[in-house]
Every structure is written in C-alpha cells, then in structure tokens.
Amino acid sequence: MSRRRSGHGADDGSAVRSGSEADYPRRRTHVETAGTTGGYRTSKRSSRAGKKARRVARTEQHRADTKKKADRTRQGVAVVVKRAGIALAALIAVALALVLIATGVNMLARSIAKRQAMAESSPEAFREKAKENLLVIGVNGKQGADFLAVRLDEDGGQILGIAIPDGAFMEVPGQGFERIGDSYGAGPEVSLAAISNYLSVPFNKYIVVDKDTYQEALTNQSFVGLMSRVVASDLGDAERESIASFMDSVASENVALVPLPVKPISLGDQTFFEPQRSEVAELLLSWWGVKLGAEENIIRVIVYNGAGIPGIAGEAAQELIRNGMRVVDTKNADRFDYKESLIVVQDGVLENGQRVRDVLGVGTIVDQPSEQDVADIIVIIGADYVPRSQDGTQTGG
Fold first, then answer.
1. 135, 192 in Cβ contact below 8 A?
2. Residues 344-389: tens digit of each pLDDT
3. b or e along 376-396 (b: 16 or more beta carbons within 10 Å of the residue's beta carbon)?
C-alpha cells in the first residue's frame, strides 16, 4: 500500500525513491553520473598520473633545491677563495717586504762590516796593534838567527811568545821562499816583515841578543834582565826603559813561550822545517785575536821587480807588509825597463789598488780581473819608485 504525502498535490515519485534508498541498501551500478567519463579505470589512471605528476614535481623541486644549494655553495666557495686570495696576496706582500728589509739590513751589515774590516786593516790600525808586539832576535854572529815573536800584555801582566827556529821556511820579502834565519842577513827589518807576513800579526820593533841569552829566556820562561843584554834595537831610550821595567816585573809563571809547530824536512846534510801554520791557529786567535782562514779583508800582493834595482821589490814588499797587507811572492818582472810602476788589480776592487798606491807613493792603477786566487793585486815596481824608511820618510831622491 502506497502512501501519499499531503500538502503537495501531485505524486512525488522522487520522495518515494529517496525513502526507499534510505531504508534499503542499493546495489552499485555502473551508471555514470554527470561529470565522470571513465569510471574506476579512469580514476585509477588519474591516480597514477597524479602520483607521477607529484613525483615529477618533487623531482623538479629537489633539483631546484639542489641547484640552489649548489649555487649557495659555489658562492660561498668563491667568497672563501677570494678572501684566501686576498690573504695570500697580503702574505706574499708582507713576505716580500720582509725579504726586501732583510736584504737591505744584510747589505747594510755587510757594508758596515766591510768598512769596519777596512778600518781595522788600515795602516793606522795595524800600527796600533803592533804596539804590544816585539821581535826578539837571537844571533850567533851573522850565521842565521832564531826569533821569538812576543806580545807584551801589560794589562794582563803576562808575556806570550812563539819561538821560530832558524830553519823554518817562509816567504821572505825580496828573497822568496827561504829559511827565516837567512832573512836577518838582509837586515832586521826584513825579518820583521817576513814574520809579520807569515803570522798575520804586525811586528814593527825588535831587539837583538846573543844566542845564549835567547836560549836562556826560552828555557827559563823568563825575560828578567833580558833588556840589559840587548846588543841592537830600534827602540828609543824611553821605550826601552819602559819595556825593561815591565819584563823584570813578570814572574816566570806568567810567561808562555812555545815553539812554532814545524815538520822537519831533510835535504842532503841539512834539515829544514816546514811550519804547520794551522796548528798555531789557536795561539794566534787566543793571544793576538787573529783567526786564520779569515784573511779575506787582507790585501794579498805579488811584487815584481821591473826596475832592475837589486832588492827593490823586497823593499816595496816590506812597506806593504808594514801597512797591513800580505805579500805572497816577490820576484823579477819579465823585463827591467818599466819607467812607471803598475798596480794591477785582479779582484776588481779598485779601492784596494788605491790603498797600495797610497803606501808606495807611485803607480798607475790598472783594472785587469783574473780568475786566479793567489793574489788580489800584482805590483810591478818601476823606476819611479823610491823606497821609504820604516817611519814613512823616503830613503832616497
């Protein structure tokens, strides 16, 4: 029996269907509603497409994020690199500045050291160093001589010395490589020059005693009473008296006289002695402050006789030695007709050539660099050279 809803006139079929649908479950049909086109499969495909679209979107977003992070990273690296480059450039600039400063300081230090070395090796400084030094010569007639190279250390109250035997071979100015004892035959000034040249220690004063007195002083290690037995000297009266007073006041325990280390060499029936210069190095350093092997500031000279006057090269060599230079050889030149003396500078230091000229009083300076390392300067003595005495005055016209 059907029911009718009152108040609405005509039969409302939709209301009935609605009521029945609410009361009974209805079987699902495949009738498509408006707005749909494919049903379940279409929805499934749509779902897959959505997922794919979402994956693509997520992938693109991930790529965008990754690119953004990469861009930020690159920017950060660029900033770091830029800052590092600036810091490195600043560091290089500072290092370069420090190098330039260090180079300037070193150059200044070398310049100062060079000037100081030149001042210390000047004739004035050399004579000042020689004030404490005395050469004691022991002679037996005119047949050779032995030598005591002595330092009179008044401040320390001591006397220090090296005994040099007659047969020791050394470069003797004007005579070449000879026995040092034979140098005395040409005069004590030659002996002074030879020993000064060998030891690199200046000796400008000497006393001569007989061989017995010399030997007693060496054996007893004492100079007490020595000055009263002097037979020859270049000392003035006041200086001689002052030295005698000091010698007599020094006890033997404050006297050290040691033999020069030598190596005996027998030639026929004669025995010569080769000085072992390296073995005396410690004594020279301790007693005189001379360091062997550090003579780069000392001008080394070879002297040639180009005037033909016997002994002239030896006299020039003595002058150079007395003024702090080292003569490594003296010999005859290739000829004897040189009118003017020549000062041939081999090491390129022309100011050293001028120093040689100042000592000799004459000479044309010639710049002639050479690779040889025997001498810094070669001097050829010409007819214009006039020897000077030890006090600096000329000995001839």
1. yes
2. 999 889 999 999 999 999 999 999 999 888 899 999 999 999 987 6
3. bbbbbbbbebebbeeeeeeee
Contact 169, 190 (CB under 8 A): no
At 248 the pLDDT is 96
Listed residues 274, 294, 314: the one ending a domain: 294
Q: Is-contact 356 392, C-beta < 8 A?
A: no
Q: Tally the C-alpha atoms within 13 A of residue 71's C-alpha that lie toward its C-beta.
A: 6
What's the pLDDT score for residue 101?
Answer: 81
- What are the CA-CA distances from residue 70 to residues 57, 66, 85, 180 (Å)? 19, 6, 22, 90
Nearby residues of 341 by Cβ (< 8 Å), 6 or more positions away? 306, 360, 362, 363, 364, 379, 380, 381, 382, 384, 385
Could you tell me the two tokens for 44? 């499934």
184 and 260 share one domain: yes
Phi, psi for residue 15 in degrees, rounded to 5: -70, -35
Q: pLDDT per residue over 57-68, tens digit each?
A: 777 777 777 777
As to burial, measured by CB atoms within 10 angstroms (0-12 exposed, 13-18 middle, 19+ buried), residue 223 is: buried
Say yes or no to pLDDT of 70 above 80: no
Kindly state whether residues 173 and 308 are assigned to the same domain.
no
Determine the Cα–Cα distance for residues 109 and 101; give it in Å rounded to an integer: 12
The whole domain housing 70 covers 38-120
Which of these, 226, 221, 229, 280, lies nearest to 256 by C-alpha position? Answer: 221
Both 287 and 144 in a single domain? yes
112-141 burial, b at 16+ Cβ within 10 Å, e below that, comes to eeeeeebeebebeebeebbebbbbbbbbee
pTM for the model stands at: 0.63
Contact in structure between 312 and 387 (CB atoms under 8 Å): yes
Indicate if 166 and 284 belong to the same structural domain: yes
Structural domain count, the chain: 3
Same-domain check for residues 314 and 191? no
For the stretch 191-216, pLDDT in tens is 999 999 998 899 999 999 999 999 99
**CA-wise closest residue to 209 among 193, 236, 188:** 188
